[in-house]
Amino acid sequence: MIKRTKAHIPGELPTPEMLRGVLREHARNCARLQRLHAYYEGRHDILRRERRKGLPNSRMPHGYPAYISDMAAGYLIGTPIRYEYDDPDALKALADALRESDTQSLDAEIAMQQSIFGRGVELIYADENARPRCTVLDPRDAFTVYSDDETASPLFGVYLRAEYDAAGRRTGQIITVYTDALIARYRCAQPSAIREPMDVTRHYFGAVPLIEYWNNAREAGDFERVLPLIDAYDVLQSDRVNDKQQFADALLVLTGVMGLTSPEEGDGRTPGERLRQDKTLALPDSTAKVEWLTKEARESDADVLRLAIAHDIHKFSMVPDLTDEHFAGNLSGVAMRYKLLGLEQLTSIKERYFREGLRHRVRLISRYLALLGAKEINAADVRFIFTRSLPVNQVEQAQIVRDLHGIVPDEQLLPQLSFLQDGVTGGDK
Fold first, then answer.
1. Which residues, including other chains, have CB under 8 Å from residue 247's CB and lie 6 or more apart?
2. Looking at the predicted structure, is the pLDDT value of residue 429 above 50?
3. Residue 212 and residue 26: Cα distance in Å, rounded?
């Protein structure tokens, strides 16, 4: 989190000096974000490993980062979020705005950013028809600055966009600053050269329209803490392949045998050529011997270490290996939840921060829609319903509802049936 003192902003916009400072702070964090993105895409540090010339150099990245983020984001947001509000008419105007922005897809993208980078970034803006819209920005190019007091309220947001000419050559950078009332654009060759804005316009969302969705209090990615374990797994598996290649290239040690380069009588080939072609070798006497010079490979020890590292990766990332034999298809819902307890705890934290971002989204869009004549929604009263992406035993659910019928009110029983969904999702048609 980047913090600044609100009193140091003299007017409605931060000073160029403050902007240069926060841009430097963001740039220092970009190297970390770039590494996390590279690992998600499979570009691990093992790919840069060098060995002496002549030695095999297998470099095998393994897709644990992608697996962890895909599983964590899918478990949180695989089923679209539902919005519930006591006033259906007011909720309809919000639902229409969310549907026009296809926020179901945006939520999935934000959840993925949240898992990879430790935070996702969303921008609320007005399109050419003055309708509210949402879009997702790359966390490497956008961030929010917060006050350094106990409220930690957003002071302004920053979005960096490179400019290119017709030939694709970079010519400069556009830096857009969003405050609670203004949008200011700056053009400069590099962030350190930022001066005065080239234009300033007003927006009507009533707060900073750049929203951050944190993954946790540390803004850490889901696989960030296990990167050393992933590196160790890559090295171990790559070295196992290297050992196999070196075993195939083992040296042949000949004891008591001389003259492999001289042709044998009656055969124009040397003993060395016969060995390569016929796989036979005539030894001169009983004291001579032939053996391969190889390194003893302890595959069982290496496999024990591999399994231990893989287990630690899943344990400390709290994302289980669903291909494990412990995840049988005949497990009950309760047994499955016990095995997913770590992932559930991880997702509960992610969900709390996601709710904060969603509430800010609703607050901004509702204020804007109220200016267009719609009924304003109290964002604090909107209920966001997250549904875990788990296999559902609908027969078991129906039995529970049947057994409780007449004991528990129907309005409390019906939500227990996953195939009956009330409320509104961001992409309802």
1. 294, 295, 297
2. no
3. 14
